[in-house]
Amino acid sequence: MLYAALIYTPDLDFAEPEIAKEWLPQYAAFRSEADEHVVGGKALAQTATATTVRVLGARGGEVVVSDGPYAETKEALTGFYLLECEDLDEAVALAAKIPGAWHGAIEVRPVADFSAVQSLLTSE
Amino acid sequence: MEDPLARTVRLEGARILATLVRTVGDLGIAEDAVQEATITAMREWPVSGVPESPRAWLTVVARRKATDLVRREGLRGRKEREATQLLDQTAPEPPEPVGAVGSDDQLRLIFVCCHPTLAPEARVALALRTLCGLEVPEVAAALLTSEAAMAKRLTRSRQKIKQAGIRYRVPAEAELPARLAAVCGVLHGLYTAGHTRLDGATLLDVDLCDEAVRLARLLRDLLPGRPGPEALLALLLLTEARRPARIDPDGAPVLLAAQDRGRWDRAAIDEGLHLLATSLERTEGQADPYQLQAAIAAVHALAPTAEATDWPEIVRLYDLLISVQPASTPAALGRAVAVAEAYGAPAGLAALDALDAQAPDPHDHRRTAIRAELLARTGRLAEAAATMRRSLDGPLPDPERAHRLRRVAEWETAEDRP
After folding, report:
1. N or C terminus: fewer CB in 10 A for chain B?
2. Within a domain: residue B238?
3. What is the pTM of this model?
4. 94-153 in B: which are within 8 Å (CB) of A?
């Protein structure tokens, strides 16, 4: 199964030498340890760079753009991995090795399963 | 009211589920197979008669159904070969997994079901429903929630298990402590369901009580030196010790004050008291809910007569219990009864009024029945009779209903006398 590991930590700027020095080797170590499970993943730039976009009403409605992340919280989404795992136990065990887990928390979520609605997807 | 045959089928079904999960390695398939087997039993047994060993019969049929299900669902690759191989009737039984969880299928499965990625209350509910064969209303009553909320919680948990890829597997030794609290909750819930039936012809279900005590004992042996399982076993033993005196030969309930204390099981009491003392030593006086409930049962056990009961001490213990379990209605009810015994019926009624103000529940038939008894003690017999009648609205075990109707009749007769 494919799981997203969403990394919530204090807002980080990985371009800061201090931060890069502290965290990048730890993430690199996770990456090499979990290599066979990591399907994808990225670190995100600081939430100060985020822009939130929403369309009012329905498609084609007024576009409202605002500065900042969707939710202002103490811990922010600072990165994610896509992990291929046998089951949730394995995903949880891997998540516990992501450095963000001891800097914040990791939300483990399976990616949506479309197998039940496959026919709708292909008939279009 | 559930028919006795259906109840046998359901409870035996729950028991064979544990073994079948081990064979199939998949809880979902095992559950479906057991369900189909129980449906077959319900169709065939009324015609053919109940087989000599219902469990063996259900096991054979459920295994066959599971084989069909595995083939039909076409589990992919290696898993399918493994599963069908395991289910091959000629193949030997799979070896008992050796591991920390011990050799008891049922206890092992309860640990498996108490998966840490599920919410704590969901773990307990699922195990009671799936592994112990309790009906949704019984699970709801054991866990002090409404039937609708419980049904929703169970559905949500099953969805998460399926969609989030939670696989049931036997936990390693290091994983056991994290699951222990939920496992204690399951055993306590199982005992409660047996001890306080919601309806039916009898007040209690001896099989469920016995099974809960058996599992609690196994749990204490599996993880020795831990206060939780010791306190739980102490609570169950101290409660169970009174069982022989709780019911008269006609199946009617006998109130605590009227029980023949000579019929209490002294060996169970001694063991319970000893376990409680050991458990309390380990936590250095910091008491958890099981310890406090066991301590309340111990005060009763130590009283040579009903009159000699130390009710102020029981009130004090209930106060402590409520301080760690503020939302527990049974604790508040127990406290109101103890207050009435210690300080008089008007004080007990005031405690009930306070509970009603804090957590009103007109459908709580026990609360209504207790109020009726306390009203009668203050001499307000007409009010007591009317209140007791209100407590009969919902489902009740037959002997409990008969008992309450007798009380109503007594009070109404006394009222009519000039």
Report:
1. C
2. yes
3. 0.81
4. 117
